[in-house]
């Protein structure tokens, strides 16, 4: 029997590449799509030799054509780190709006089930803690981070419109901070930034006084949650993340202890609209999907550090990506 086919946009990114691995392991034929503006082919090069994997170098903000049947469409194409989406704000808005519309149209024409990667950023700088799916958020639409937050909020609204108006089967995952192998060391997020600084022998930079909190989920746990949500019968948003909350100062201290380096922590001003606290309420995921994270932070951090340490030293020093301005 022919394998079910699944399209994963953003396939060469951190999460997209892990999803490609999982679906191939589960026996699917995977079609990866990525314009490589923030993705990296090295994340999926191990899949190119497989007959059950194919890759389209394509921007989903433009019309998408995929021949043949599709069982599922997973839309993970988007810049996801502040360093990236502040440099390419218009592409970020377009992939969340036009890209989502194109994916929904494709899913509708193929009678496929569609899952979108939303984010905890739709809660903005939350006034409710921890964040439940019922919370509408506290987002500054014209602030610098608004390009990402509002792209994702629009994405959810568009997806629900297709669900309600066209009867399309849709799933919405709200992803909280995730980490693991294949993150970019220079992507500006706390964990790779801290580990990159430790590897280079630099002091660790904490923004603000370090009292702001994050909740870090290991990538394998996240992928398991996404997979269960896709196969479930639930169409409303579901938080997937690890509710184990930690301050960024404590987190920097954990990285220093893990890497055995002698650096100190230095403090810099907090970026505009940076969320002060972030922690998922995962009651819904537990009840509906029977899901909760299993990998302890200590274990996940160790695996991630070993991955980064194994990279050639020139990777440790690579600067954040620069983009040609063609919005």
Q: What descriptive keywords fit this protein?
A:
about 325 residues, alpha/beta, seven-stranded parallel beta sheet, two-stranded parallel sheet
Largest sheet: 7 strands, parallel
Distance between the termini: 43 Å
CA radius of gyration is 19 Å
**Proportion in β-strands:** 15-25%
Low-pLDDT segments: none
Question: DSSP helix count?
Answer: 10
Order of helices and strands: EHEEEHHEHEEHEEEHEEHEHHH
**Overall mean pLDDT:** 93
SS class: alpha/beta
From the spread of the alpha carbons, the general shape counts as globular
**Widest beta sheet: strand line-up:** 3-2-1-4-5-6-11
Annotation, overall tally of beta strands: 13
| Helix content, binned percent | 25-40%
Q: How would you describe this protein?
A:
The mean pLDDT is 93. The termini are far apart. This protein is an alpha/beta fold and 327 residues long. The protein has a seven-stranded parallel beta sheet, with helices on both faces. Helix 3 (89-110) runs parallel beside helix 4 (146-166). It contains ten helices and 13 strands.
């Amino acid at each position: 029997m022919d394998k079910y086919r699944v399209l994963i946009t953003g396939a060469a990114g951190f999460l997209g590449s892990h999803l490609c691995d999982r679906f191939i392991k589960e026996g699917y034929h995977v079609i990866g799509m990525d314009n490589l503006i923030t993705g990296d082919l090295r994340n999926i090069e191990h899949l190119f030799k497989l007959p059950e994997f194919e890759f389209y170098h394509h921007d989903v903000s433009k019309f998408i054509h995929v021949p043949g049947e599709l069982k599922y469409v997973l839309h993970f194409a988007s810049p996801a780190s502040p360093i990236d989406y502040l440099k390419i704000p218009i592409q970020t808005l377009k992939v969340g709006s036009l890209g989502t519309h194109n994916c929904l149209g494709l899913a509708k024409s193929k009678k496929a089930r569609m899952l979108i990667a939303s984010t905890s950023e739709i809660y903005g700088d939350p006034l409710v803690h921890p964040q439940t799916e019922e919370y509408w958020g506290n987002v500054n639409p014209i602030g610098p981070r608004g390009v990402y937050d509002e792209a994702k909020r629009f994405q959810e609204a568009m997806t629900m419109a297709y669900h309600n108006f066209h009867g399309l089967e849709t799933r919405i995952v709200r992803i909280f901070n995730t980490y693991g192998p294949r993150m970019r060391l220079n992507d500006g997020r706390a964990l790779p930034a801290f580990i990159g600084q430790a590897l280079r022998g630099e002091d660790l930079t904490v923004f603000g006084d370090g009292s702001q909190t994050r909740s870090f989920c290991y990538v394998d746990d996240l992928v398991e949650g996404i997979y269960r949500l896709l196969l479930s019968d639930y169409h409303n948003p579901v938080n997937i993340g690890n509710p184990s909350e930690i301050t960024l100062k404590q987190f920097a201290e954990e990285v220093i202890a893990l890497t055995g380096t002698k650096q100190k922590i230095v403090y810099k001003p907090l970026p505009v609209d940076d969320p002060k606290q972030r922690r998922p309420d995962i009651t819904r995921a537990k009840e509906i999907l029977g899901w909760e994270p299993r990998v302890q932070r200590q274990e996940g951090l160790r695996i991630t550090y070993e991955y980064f340490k194994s990279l050639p030293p020139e990777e440790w020093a690579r600067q954040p990506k620069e983009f040609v301005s063609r919005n």
